[in-house]
Design goal:
Helix content of chain A: 40-55%
Radius of gyration of chain A: 21 Å
Distance between the termini of chain A: 31 Å
Mean pLDDT of chain A: 90
Largest interface: A-B, 91 and 91 residues
Largest sheet of chain A: 6 strands, parallel
Strand order of the largest sheet of chain A: 3-2-1-4-5-6
Order of helices and strands of chain A: EHEHEEHEHEEEHEHHHHH
Strand content of chain A: 5-15%
Number of strands of chain A: 9
Oligomer: homodimer
Structural class of chain A: alpha/beta
């Protein structure tokens, strides 16, 4: 691989043209981040036709067409990514880089290390952008603009060595692959940040998967008396918005990050128990302290977030 | 009281000129829903000055000035409303109508029945509109437009009779007072719905207070590792938005609706436990069923909501 880190990819394949895959295609075309983009459906899928009509891809192809591609993006639910990895093996050209958009990373990165042939490179990606809508019709070329993409690779995993993300733990080719994938997402308007796969999974358990579980449980609780919903306003709409997301995709995400999410749910249950006790016993100082502490944590986070690049 | 149900009020007093009180003033002035509006601060308060500068009230007054008013609106936190009720007694003119904007209703309506003199009328209101911002600077004249105002009165409570909201359980004067308060909120652009105070409190426990407790607990859980917050996106922002609300006001609300909220928190904890078990045991059908059931409940609610007047 002689390409420099910032050189755009020539031919990109997007496998899975749903909301994310089609949005990637639209963003690539709008920002001229690659010369050619092909779209590949999973067996039985037809969303590439919509992606083609929307101008997100140049043509529809079958899996063997990845043999001409420099970058292959797996844009399917997590467990389909895991199932796809071995199927890529016979078709990848030397030097090809494979990435994905899965919301959990440890299982994917570990599997990819073993599934892909020598001389090809896997760099895990998690573009932190989405919508509760799904499918290529909901795709937008600006879905990724100004959002963060977490980059997870694991170069030393094959050797069983404790992994690290420092440049000197990679071969030069592996490091170049990481940099090219970072440049690719940056060319779609994203910020990138490298993080170890297991830490990534703990982070997203706290800030993405737990909110999904909470929104789901909250919606089920609030809807237990349907009459009560006439009194519902923006508070319930906002707190449960993500519970309107695709159940199939979220089943995948939650099942591939089980232990970290279970820990987070236990923590949430404890905070709820503390609040309930304060409310039941009329412990005003304890209740106020909890509400203030949550408000402060949120205010500080948002202030920090505005300042970050 | 000879005024017809739809006749606008002549002189209105707003006690407490924070976000809600000042927004009421702005809406009254914009829609000419009363002839005069006076603003009254709680002891030590100064927000009427801002309300005056913003044109939300005609003048600043002290509590005795309510003796010239037809409608007195208590726009303070719930426990201040409870404390204010006896203080109104010496100043109310015959036929005066008192309402409030408190987020819990059973304690307020019960207290008002006993606190106010004969020949005056209390009609509880809960305009379902707000913001996580507070104070008169955040007030908006359109805060109430198209939102729902729940109306809670309890005419038979004094007699210890099971209460009802049918017209024939009210005296003619009491019923006229309910209708005038309804017309008032309608003149600010709101829809109104009558509901018994205890049922109101159970409804809002489910759709407003529980989301607040959940958002608070969720923010505390997600922020337990501050590093994780770099990976946070709109999901966490939306699910925790209401946890940015005023801690003092929410302490009040939660403490005046304790039993109903504690029940709701228990229900939420059970749903979380079910989700956690499904995730831990890898029970895919159970997990998918829960996610689908929450999504369906939310989709149906929102579809219904769009159709309602």
């Amino acid at each position: 691989m002689n390409a420099s880190a910032s050189q755009p990819f020539d031919a990109v394949a997007i496998i899975g043209c749903g909301l994310i895959g089609t949005s990637i295609g639209l963003a690539i075309r709008e920002r001229r981040a690659a010369v050619t983009v092909i779209g590949i459906d999973l067996p039985g899928g037809t969303s590439t036709q919509t992606a083609l009509q929307r101008g997100a891809i140049d043509r529809v192809a079958t899996l063997d067409a990845i043999s001409s591609c420099d970058l292959i993006i797996l844009a399917t639910p997590v467990r389909q990514i895991l199932a796809l990895l071995p199927a890529l093996r016979p078709h990848l050209k030397p030097g090809a880089i494979v990435t994905d958009v899965g919301s959990t990373k440890e299982q994917i990165v570990k599997s990819a290390i073993y599934a892909l042939p020598a001389g090809t490179y896997f760099v895990g990606s998690h573009p932190m952008a989405g919508s509760e809508k799904r499918g290529p019709d909901a795709a937008r070329s600006d879905l990724f603009a100004n959002a963060l993409c977490l980059i997870c690779s694991q170069p030393d995993y094959k050797q069983g060595v404790a992994y690290s993300l420092a440049a000197d733990t990679y071969t030069a080719h592996e490091y170049a692959a990481v940099q090219r994938v970072e440049s690719f997402w940056q060319s779609l308007g994203m910020r990138t940040l490298r993080v170890l796969p297991d830490l990534h999974d703990r982070w997203v358990a706290a800030v993405s998967h737990l909110p999904h579980a909470a929104a789901t449980a909250l919606m089920l609780s609030a809807a237990s008396d349907p009459h009560a919903l006439v009194a519902a306003a923006n508070g319930l709409i906002d707190t449960t918005r993500i519970a309107g997301g695709d159940a199939e995709m979220w089943t995948d995400i939650l099942l591939t990050n089980g232990p970290a999410i279970a820990d987070q749910i236990s923590q949430l249950q404890k905070h709820l128990e503390t609040l309930k006790t304060a409310i039941e016993t009329g412990d005003e100082p304890a209740l106020r302290a909890h509400l203030e502490s949550a408000k402060r944590a949120r205010d500080q986070w948002l202030a920090q977030r505005t300042k970050s690049p």
